Every structure is written in structure tokens, then in C-alpha cells.
Amino acid sequence: MSSPAVLQGLRVLDLTRLLPGPVATLRLAELGADVLKIEAPGAGDDARVMMQSAADRVAGRPGAFYRIVNRGKRETRLDLKSESGRNVLKALARDADVLVESFRPGVMARLGLGYDTLRELNPKLVYCAITGYGSSGPFARRAGHDLNYVSYAGVLDQLASTDGTPVLPNFQIADLLGGALSAVTQILAALWHVSRGGEGRFLDVSMTHATYAHNVVAQIALANDDEEDQHAGHGLLNGGVPCYNLYRTLDGRWLAVGALELKFWETLCAAIDRPEWGTRHWSLGQAVGGTDAAALTRELAGVIASRTLKEWSTLLEPLDCCVSPVLTPAEAARHPLFTGATSEQPGAGKDAEARTAMQSERADMRAPLTGPQRQDKY
To answer: For the region Disordered, what residue ranges are annotated (predicted)?
Structure first.
């Protein structure tokens, strides 16, 4: 889906690296903002070579990681350790609306480029600092990555198998939800304040604190003094009921059943020729994580295991009962939900077709990129 250029004319200075900050400024660019990515001389952003393919190394170009999260931005290099580099950044900050950085707390201040300095040059500037643990507090200067943030926030403990083993996700929850999304939300709120005649402000985005705040279902269990409900296989949303669970299919794939409401559950039970199961639902008194819920989960697992993912998708998706195939990233890239096509069956297709689609997707990602620009054109 394309986004309207509602932020056209907004000028953003992007001093961030790796994933959280670049994705935040990417979202602003997608909304029409003019984003200037500023990197240090030399190697620049570490994302240029992280997860870089052999073909990209041979071609001497940044890897897909860098290209995807920095598409649609202009680029320049500044040595902020030099007086000339600092002076250029100050000149850019005078005319900018937003500055986003992801250095450790205190780095920009030591360079003479902290918020207190830049606000004197531009009182309307919205200055956003994305850090792991916040700009103050006992952990402020500690290093960390997504895995550390979600572990401290109590989120990783929630991403666990039924035996309690945490699952290492390939989706960076703290970086993207706690960092990028939180930054964009706060930036837009601050810009609204500025547009109403207010001054700019310093935004302190802690990825760990924001992730902790979003761990809502676990907080509900704590408020209910129900520690057991937090454990995998015992809560309403983590495997404690058959109507909201994952099931392996005949071909070794997985089906996601999200029939949380009774009407969806009844539709599903009728479709699989088990209408009598419709009364065995949490809303009708079935104990979440209880004996009947566990037994029915096993029974439903036996039914789902009798057919392939394609067969279940063909039968259940048209019924609007909140059942979906667990797609691979390659399958998701070619799914009609994201391509706009209508002829392909979800979960179906050959691996070669999926690879071709992913290649096309990568080509689309490259298309909007702009080359390095001189800072005096900002």
C-alpha cells in the first residue's frame, strides 16, 4: 500500500545506524519527508556490510540490509569529530524540522551537538534520541541489542515453547516496535505541538522501556495475580485454548487458528465436520489451560494433521473463520495480500516461483534509492 506524501516539505536529519533509527526515518520518508542520512567518513553505517551477499561484496555495493532501510533518502558524509563537520551539521540543523540520532547518551553533547546546543540555533527542532535503555538511569551507558532489550522487558520469556524454552525470533521486536515505531509516534506528536505554535523538544526513546510498555497481555496476567497465565500453553493467547493455536499439517507445515470469538469457532467446527465441538469454547465456560482445552487441542491437532496446508487453506480461508496458513517470508512476498493479485492460492506454489518473486521484490526495494548527495543541496 502506498502512503500519501503528507509530510512533504518536512526536513529530517538522520544520524542513525543499523536498524531502529533508519527504519524510523524510512517511515518518515515514505510519508513524503526529505530525509538526509549523515554517515561518518570511511566505512559509514555498519549496515552497509552486515548480512551482505557475496554478489554485493563483489560489486562493491552496500548489502540489502542497508539498501532496504535507507531507500528514498539522500546521503552525505560528515566528520562530526572535526570543527568543519560540526559546523556543517549546525547549519543543517538550523533549517531542519527533525533530527534523529542513536548514539550512546552523552556522545552528541560531548561533540558540542547536543539538544541544548541545537535548540539555541533552532527552537522548533524536534530532537529524537533512540537508545537501548534511555538517556538517563543505571543502564543508560550500557551496550545492547534487540535480544537484550526483549529479555530485560520480560518479552522474551513470553516467546517460549510449552516447555519454557525461549524462542529466538527473527523479527526484531524491540528495535522495530520499541525503537522505530515509538520514535515515529513521538516525532509526529512533537511536530503537532510545533505546528500549534509550540517549541521543539527532546524525545528520549528507550527501546527497552517502550517494549516493556507494550507487553500488555503479560501485564494483564500480573494485574490478575495469575502468574500461570503467562506461561506458554496456559493463557488465552499463548496456547491455552484450542480455538487460538498452531497446528501442524500433513505436509509438515503449520496452520494458524485464531477463532477466538465463538462465531468463528463454530464456523470452523462446522467446516471440519465437528459441529459438536462448537460448545467447547472458552466463552462458554471451557477453562483456559484446563483439561478439556488440552484434550480438544490434541483432537483438533489430529484432524489438522490429516490434510496439507494447501488443502486447509482452500477450505477454510473463504469461510472467514480467522484461520490462516503460516507462510514463509518468500510466500508472503508473493501473496495476493501484498502483491494485489487475485489468482494465487495462499500457501501454494513452487520454491522456484517464490525465489523469482523475492528477486522481483528486492528489485522493487532498490528502485526508489537515491545516490549520495552533497550536503549543500539539502
So the answer is: 339-378
Is 280 within a domain?
yes
For residue 228, tell me if it sits in a domain.
no
Nearest by Cα to 325 from 269, 240, 248: 248
Could you tell me if 127 and 47 are in contact, meaning their C-beta atoms sit under 8 angstroms apart? Answer: no
pLDDT at 369: 40
Same domain, 134 and 186: yes
Over its C-alpha atoms, the chain yields an Rg (Å, rounded) of: 24
For the chain, strand residue ranges (E) read 11-14, 34-39, 74-77, 98-101, 126-131, 202-206, 244-248, 254-258, 323-325
Report the C-alpha gap between 112 and 77 in whole angstroms: 18
Residues 169 and 284 in one domain: no
Residue 2 grid coordinates? 502506498
Residue 70 and residue 168 share a domain: yes
Is 175 designated active site? yes
* Residues 106-127, mean pLDDT to the nearest whole number: 98
The Cβ of residue 54 has, within 10 Å, a number of other Cβ atoms equal to: 7
Predicted confidence band of residue 362 (pLDDT cuts 50, 70, 90): very low
- Say which of 175, 214, 231, 234 is annotated catalytic: 175
In this structure, the answer to whether residues 50 and 170 fall within a common structural domain is yes
Residue 342 confidence (pLDDT): 63
Domain presence at residue 233: no
- Domain holding 167, by residue range, is 11-214
Per-residue pLDDT at 377 = 40
What mean pLDDT is predicted for residues 93-120?
Answer: 98
Helices (H), 230-345: 262-271, 291-304, 309-316, 329-333, 336-339
Quote the CA–CA distance of 378 and 185 in Å, as a whole number.
Answer: 25
Nearest Cα to Cα of residue 117 among 99, 136, 104, 133? 99
Give pLDDT tens digits for 330-355: 999 999 999 987 644 444 444 444 34
Domain boundary among 214, 236, 258: 214
* Domain co-membership, 19 together with 124: yes
Per the rule left: phi > 0, alpha: psi between -120 and 50, beta: everything else, 278 is: alpha
